[in-house]
Write a structure and sequence with these properties.
binds adenosine-5'-triphosphate, CBS-domain, globular, Rossmann fold, six-stranded mixed beta sheet, 2 domains, four-stranded antiparallel beta sheet
């Protein structure tokens, strides 16, 4: 991986007593929010429509100015910075992608680096490495946005946000407009990408399942962005702070817990010496394994290192272990 892509790691964002009152509104849209968003993590803000998620996020890049309170990034108070320069230093991805229709993909991605005065050859190299990073063919650089599918355009949106290698990225329902299959695909790709770039990411959604999947931590917000619970997905599922948080988890909390647990993090039993057992790859989740057990009517599955019938068998997983995992006993942290 070229150094420039992973060059600038994420920085810690800290909000202290941040309040936003829109002019003419009786109630603040955001009231006295304090939270630390650790460097290199994905923090998801989740809550009902109108609770203040977007307002909270846009105060971080000063698209919206806080009424009071302090926001620091890497220890620097963002209110002391030049707003335009500050905004350019933060990646921003929104649902309505916002690509320029009359500019080629390379010019859409290269816009900010060009404005920052990068040489043409450096911009071209950056565009090429970003296209590769988000999984698009190199020759798409010459295409126009209308020549790409919605999901491909969304990938260009992510590439553009990463163009100047920002330490912080803000993502407002970035995959909201895509169909469920494309969405799942984009989420998986984004998680893979984030493992490489390790930016600090603030991600807004109203879909709790998306929050569980994407977040290293989740902030469940009440109206005015009051934090109901701020913790890891596992901790929130295991012990929701109150009925409000529990209502987001909804039905199937145990299954959601199993969907967070990868087979590689579970202690496997030795493989039994019988033929014909269902096989599942170690990258899958315990929930996938349970699904397979139910589908095949088998209380044991073989776990393999890779796809295919020749793949190495790493061990086996039994239904009893799955039940233990739901109760929080089988994890191998
Ligand atoms: N420019 C504005 N002027 C006045 N009120 C506003 C303005 N922008 C947002 N609000 C109000 O502030 C509150 C929070 O809005 P915000 O967009 O932050 O919520 P949200 O949680 O992101 O909602 P959604 O999920 O529907 O996008 C809402 O009650 C909204 O009506």
């Amino acid at each position: 991986m070229p150094e420039s892509i992973t060059g600038r790691p994420g920085e810690t964002i800290e909000l202290t007593d941040v309040t936003k009152r829109y002019p003419g509104q009786a109630e603040p849209a955001v009231e006295a929010v304090s939270m630390v968003i650790p460097a290199g993590e994905v923090v998801v803000l989740v809550g009902p429509s109108g609770c203040g998620k977007t307002t909270t996020m846009k105060m971080i890049n000063r698209l919206i100015e806080p009424t009071s309170g302090t926001i620091t990034i890497g220890g620097t108070d963002v209110l002391t910075l030049d707003p335009d320069q500050h905004r350019r230093d933060i990646g921003y991805v929104i649902q309505q992608i916002g690509l320029f229709p009359h500019k080629r993909i390379e010019d859409n991605i290269g816009l900010l680096p060009k404005r920052l005065g990068w040489s043409r050859s450096r911009v071209r190299a950056r565009v090429a490495e970003l296209l590769e990073l988000v999984g698009l063919p190199a020759d798409y650089a010459r295409r126009y946005p209308r020549e790409l599918s919605g999901g491909q355009q969304q990938r260009v949106g992510v590439a553009r946000a990463l163009a100047a290698d920002p330490p912080v990225m803000l993502m407002d329902e970035p995959f909201g407009a895509t169909d469920p299959i494309t969405r799942d695909h984009l989420q998986n790709e984004f998680l893979r990408l984030q493992r490489e770039v390790r930016k600090t990411i603030v991600f807004v959604t109203h879909d709790f399942d998306e929050a569980l999947k994407m977040g290293d931590r989740i902030a469940v917000l009440r109206p005015r962005s009051v934090i109901a619970q701020y913790d890891t997905p596992e901790a929130i599922l295991a012990a929701p702070a109150d009925d409000y948080v529990a209502s987001f988890i909804g039905a199937g909390g145990q299954l959601k817990k199993l969907a967070l647990l990868r087979l590689r993090d579970v202690e496997l039993a030795p493989a039994p010496r019988v033929g014909g057992l269902p096989r599942i790859v170690v990258d899958a989740t315990v929930r996938d394994a349970l699904d397979l057990m139910l589908g095949e009517g088998s209380d044991v599955v073989l776990v393999t290192g890779d796809f295919g019938d020749d793949a190495e068998v790493l061990g086996s997983l039994h239904l009893q272990t799955v039940m233990g995992a739901a109760a929080g006993k089988a994890g191998n942290p």
